[in-house]
Amino acid sequence: MSVTHIVQLQFKPSVSAATIQDACDRMLDLKQRCIHPDTQKPYIVSSTGGQDCSVEGIQGGITHAFIVEFESVAHRDYYAKTDPGHLAFGASLIPIVDKVQVIDFQVGVFVKE
Q1: In what residue span(s) does the Stress-response A/B barrel domain sit (predicted)?
Q2: Over 90: is that where the pLDDT of 27 sits?
Q3: pLDDT over 80 at 79, yes or no
Q4: CA atoms of 54 and 8, how far apart (whole Å)
Q5: Cα 46 to Cα 109: distance, rounded to the nearest angstrom
Q6: Number of folded domains in the chain?
Q7: What pLDDT was estimated at residue 109?
Q8: Domain that holds residue 77
Q9: Is residue 1 pLDDT above 90, yes or no?
């Protein structure tokens, strides 16, 4: 069953627009750079994201969001825990973000058994 991985970021106010754009570009580039060790091919099904434009005013400081889809829980787990490209990217965000929130879900699964 596929997994949808949602990443929400709050960049530090002092971070330049160019640095934010670079981080966002690198986040989206993970779709091509994250290679599965068994297949030696990219394994992220899709990746999209952008800057917040909500009019509701309940973002809690979050400024950017990304949605990454994986074919399976195993692929998401490899990405989150082991993939060197993803881990290096995450480490590169530490000096430029104030907050990171991540939530994953499987479509139609509302209660975990």
Answers
A1: 3-105
A2: yes
A3: yes
A4: 14
A5: 20
A6: 1
A7: 78
A8: 3-106
A9: no
Q: Give the C-alpha separation, 49 to 52, whole Å.
A: 9
Which three-class secondary structure state does DSSP give residue 46?
A: strand
- The mean pLDDT of 55-74, rounded to a whole number, is 97
More confident residue, 113 or 51: 51
Q: Binning pLDDT at 50, 70 and 90, where does residue 112 land?
A: confident
Q: Which residue has the tokens 């394994």?
A: 43
Whole-number Cα distances in Å, 29 to 24, 42, 80, 91: 9, 11, 16, 16
Query: What is the pairing mode between strands 3-11 and 97-105?
Result: antiparallel
Q: Is residue 59 part of a domain?
A: yes
Give the residue from 93, 94, 1, 81 showing the smallest Cα distance to 34.
81
Alpha-carbon distance of 37 to 28, in angstroms, equals 20
* CATH number for the domain harbouring residue 44: 3.30.70.100
How many Å apart are CA 29 and CA 60, to the nearest integer?
26
Q: Model-level pTM?
A: 0.92
